[in-house]
Model the fold of this input.
Amino acid sequence: MLVGGPYFAQRRVTYLLCVTAGFLLPALVWYVAARFGWLQWPSGSGPVGYGCGVVAGLIVLFEMALWVRKKLRRKHWLGSTRTWMALHIWLGLVSLPLAICHSGFAFGGPLSMAVLLLFLAVIASGVWGLIMQQVIPRKLIDEIPGETIVTETEHLMKGYLAEAEALILSVRRQEVAIEHGAVTSSVVVRSTTKGYRVEQLDNLFKQRISPYLLTGKRGGGPLAHRARSVQMFAELRREAEPEFAEVVSKLEAICEKRRSLDDQARLYFWLHNWLCIHLPLSFALVILLVAHVVVALKYW
Done:
């Protein structure tokens, strides 16, 4: 675990938020003291404010070095990626109060304001991503027993579709056998006498089950919602004989696998896609930070 230890395993998010607030505490104390006139307001051009700005800027540059480290992951002498990631997290949190103190608790001019807002957005997206890294893996373990490679989902579902088609075909063959007198006592006959027709299951497969197995939640429909799906299959089993009900249960289990894979894809989206925000903001921050340094040195 990159934040806290085993003791905090069940309270990782709370611990992370408390740590973030703890790092902000010195800046808050300074703000309150300056507000009451006990200390001077920090300034970016003052010794303390300038020092905070330099350290925060160096930390930002080090944070970007994590990307280089990942590209050189086979260079073991650079240290483990886990160590770099831990430093990335902790130093990133340390830089937050430093940057705030460097700003003098004010946004300043347009460039300074843009740098500070972008910096806060980077920190916020990083904390959000770290929270996702603490929550989602546990949900995957608890809620997705059949976890698989997301990119293999469609290929896997084609196999399940073939299995479902085989079940429907077996039911049709039973019906044909009954019509030709090959079977005198059949589950289909017993079910039909209770008002249950094989065509219902056949139509359900063509209109609902088959499209759902191929498209998942993207196609919508009642099978995409667990409660509605359970109700639908329960109604199918209600008047069916045990053997026929077994076929319906197997079809329901296949649909549940599709729903589970859709849930996995949704969790993977939240687990990884925060990087689509964090990384661009980080690169933009470095560019604006360099511009901020150049302008500050030119006009200071």
Residues 6-145+270-299 form one domain. The chain has two domains: 6-145+270-299, 150-269. The longest helix spans residues 110-143.
